[in-house]
Amino acid sequence: MAKNKDSKTVNRTGTFDMDKMQIVAESKDGFQTYDLKALLQEFDGEQLSFTLASDFNPSHLVKE
């Protein structure tokens, strides 16, 4: 028997600023800044799954 489950999903796409803990996204209406720390505080104490994705050049590759 399947369990009923409520979930909360947040998706923010933009440029991440580690020092400010912000994500800045550009849209047709201009720029929007998201406070990542405030967003994560909404999940404080909850069990969660956390995924980050970005196109980047991996620094852990060994060049032959």
TrEMBL record:
Domain of life: Bacteria
A Pfam family assignment: YonK
Domain Bacillus phage SPbeta YonK: 1-55
Protein name: YonK family protein
Organism annotation: Paenibacillus barcinonensis
